[in-house]
Every structure is written in structure tokens, then in C-alpha cells.
Design a protein that fits this description.
Layout: H1 2-8, H2 12-19, E1 21-22, E2 29-32, E3 35-41, E4 44-45, H3 50-54, E5 58-59, H4 60-72, E6 78-85, H5 93-102, E7 109-118, H6 120-126, E8 130-133, E9 138-140, H7 174-199, H8 203-209, E10 215-217, H9 218-224, E11 229-230, H10 233-239, E12 256-257, H11 258-274, H12 282-291, H13 296-303, H14 313-320, H15 337-347
Parallel strand pairs: 3-6, 4-5, 6-7, 7-8, 7-9, 8-11
Antiparallel strand pairs: 1-2, 2-3, 9-10, 11-12
Helix pairs in contact: 4-5, 5-6, 7-8, 11-13, 12-13
């Protein structure tokens, strides 16, 4: 620590404050300025073992233990999940997320997506009071994947009891794949329903706006509702307001709120479509607005180089022709098909 202090030109005491102190009897939690920081990194597994420790993985079991200790710790005024994980096992994830969700209101609980916050990691984050992200963080990947390895070498032989033919579905058959697909879909329904509950939206909104298994980066994640704002780890630590412990949201810690981003986007759209430059180039303008993050001035500069859409002679001619007034004759039921065809042709 002395060497770090020398290089950074800070006192050892200042460095110690920034690093925080380990929370007593915790696995991977520290306390910094009254905030318990719980690391969620690497693949996620239900139980901890030697391999999870060596590989830098996180177990739901130990994370739940650290979370409960942080809730009960008298020095902890708020809890921050520092997340950089691609997700992991389904087993155990829902229980941990429910534990976090049910603890809302006891202490402020915030998830910070510093890198990847995907799949099971996002499930955990969604249970917190608020999700904040770095501008390069990747959030989402909501869905379930089941992996089966084919036994192509023929060395393994399984004999399943005749009373339980569905115990080992054959993935090489359409029926077997359908059974496995049904299981995966059922798990995904639970996943989506819990995300919807945690974020205060509907399951339809999750499927429609949260990428359908895809991910979103930083500002786009905020815009789609996956996160509540952009921030940094240090800004979150500094922004916790301990004078208003009854509030579960932080007021000043995020650099950019979701509402700020939506307002900026509305202003960008209005500026583009209000300009004469966009007239006749509406489709290109929509494409640039939705697919890029360009400023309105840059979009208008590009639009000025795009030819305006002009109706062709055929389009003009078709627009001038009114739709024919085709109505059945008074005695349509008795009119032969040939007469109907001739009458319609005469109106064109």
C-alpha cells in the first residue's frame, strides 16, 4: 500500500479509504464509506468450490450469505452490487434475486453494471432498487439456453425404465427436441416474469423492449429500460445520501438519467423533422435517428447530400385516378358471372 500511495501521491490513509475494508466473516464483500460492495464477477454457479474460486467465478450461495450480512451489519448504510458477469446457472439464481427483491426498503440496494450484466447477472441486478451502468457496459441477454452433448462415439449406453420413457428425451428426434424446447421455454417464462416484476413492467414489455435475448450497450440500455442511468463506481459511492435513508433511490449519483436521455432523444427528433432539409427524405431521416447516435446537426448535414424522393410519372398518374365505385347490381343474385365481369371492366 505504501508503494501505491507513493505512486499516486496520496497518503496511505486515503488509499485505504478508497480500497475499503473487508466485511467481517464475509466471502467477497467490503465496506467503503458505509457502502457494502458485493462483487458479482465471472460465471455464476449455485455452490462454491475450489474451481469457482480459482476461475474467478461467483456462487449464489456465498453471494446470498454476504448480502444477508450486509443487511444486518450496523456500519452498512447501503448495498452496491458491482457486476461484471456473463451469467451462469439457472439453479439458485431466482432464489437469490427474490431475496434481494424482498429486502427492498431495508437499505438502499443498487446494481452497477461495470462490464457485462447478462442473463443471470441481469436477473440479480433487476431485483435491486436501481440499475446503473457504465457507458460501455453490456446489459440484457434475457433467456435460457440448454446444452446437450451428443454421444457420437457410441461408447455410452443408457437403459431407461419402461415406466419413464420421458426421463431421457432423444434430441435426435422431433418429439425429443420438442420436449426439451418446452422445458427451456418454461424456464424462460419464469425468468421473464421475474424481470417484469422486478422492473415494474409487464412480461410483454420485457420481450418487446429488452432485446429478446440480445444485449444493449450503455445509453441504449437506459433508453430501452434495461438500466435507470449511466454512472461510474466512484460516483455511486459518493452519491449515496445517508441523510435520507427512508428513500430507496439515490438522487444525484447518476450522470445521465433515463428521463434525460429520453428528453434529449425527443429534442433530436424534433430538430431533424422540423428542418426543411428532411422534407422528401423522411425515410432516411428515420433510419439515421433510430440506427445511429449522431447529433441532429450531423444528421441534417448527411440528409442535405441525399436526393429527395420525387414521385414518378406512374405514381402521379395512379394518384390522379380515383378508386372505381364498384357496387353490386340491384339483382346481383341473379346476374351471371359474365355480366358481372363486363360491368366491372366498364368502370375501369
Amino acid at each position: 500500500m505504501a508503494e501505491i500511495a507513493k505512486e499516486s501521491r496520496k497518503t496511505p490513509e486515503a488509499i485505504a479509504r478508497e480500497m475499503g475494508k473487508d466485511m467481517k466473516d464475509a466471502n467477497a464483500a467490503s465496506i467503503r464509506d458505509g457502502v457494502a460492495v458485493l462483487k458479482v464477477s465471472g460465471p455464476l454457479f449455485r455452490y462454491a468450490n475450489l474451481m469457482t474460486r480459482i476461475c474467478g467465478a461467483t456462487s449464489y450461495e456465498l453471494l446470498a450469505r454476504d448480502f444477508n450480512k450486509a443487511l444486518q451489519h450496523p456500519e452498512v448504510k447501503a448495498i452496491l452490487f458491482d457486476i461484471d458477469s456473463p451469467g451462469g446457472e439457472v439453479n439458485g439464481c431466482s432464489e437469490l434475486a427474490d431475496m434481494i427483491f424482498l429486502a427492498r426498503g431495508k437499505k438502499p440496494i443498487v446494481a452497477y453494471a461495470s462490464g457485462a450484466c447478462c442473463s443471470g447477472a441481469y436477473w440479480i441486478a433487476s431485483a435491486c432498487d436501481r440499475i446503473l451502468a457504465s457507458d460501455t457496459a453490456v446489459l440484457g441477454s434475457i433467456g435460457v439456453v440448454s446444452v446437450f452433448e451428443k454421444d457420437d462415439d457410441g461408447k455410452t449406453i443408457e437403459i431407461v425404465s419402461s415406466q419413464s420413457p420421458n426421463k431421457r428425451p432423444d434430441i435426435n428426434t422431433e418429439e425429443g427436441r420438442a420436449k426439451i424446447q418446452a422445458r427451456v421455454d418454461e424456464l424462460a417464462e419464469v425468468f421473464i416474469a421475474k424481470i417484469a416484476r422486478n422492473r415494474g413492467i409487464t412480461a410483454v414489455d420485457v420481450v418487446k423492449n429488452f432485446g429478446a435475448g440480445d444485449v444493449a450497450v450503455g445509453q441504449y440500455a437506459v433508453r430501452n429500460g434495461l438500466a435507470d442511468g449511466l454512472s461510474s463506481f466512484e460516483a455511486i459511492i459518493a452519491g449515496f445520501n445517508f441523510q435520507q435513508t427512508e428513500k430507496i433511490f439515490m438522487n444525484d449519483n447518476e450522470k445521465t438519467s433515463a428521463e434525460d436521455i429520453r428528453r434529449t432523444e425527443r429534442e433530436r427528433m424534433v430538430q431533424v423533422f422540423a428542418s426543411e432539409v428532411s422534407q422528401g427524405r423522411e425515410n432516411t431521416a428515420k433510419l439515421l435517428l433510430t440506427k445511429t447516435d449522431l447529433a441532429a446537426d450531423d444528421i441534417l448535414e448527411i440528409l442535405a447530400t441525399v436526393p429527395t424522393h420525387r414521385e414518378s410519372a406512374f405514381e402521379q398518374a395512379m394518384a390522379a385516378i380515383k378508386n372505381p365505385d364498384i357496387r353490386p347490381a340491384a339483382e346481383a343474385d341473379n346476374e351471371p358471372p359474365e355480366a358481372v365481369a363486363q360491368r366491372i371492366a366498364s368502370l375501369i
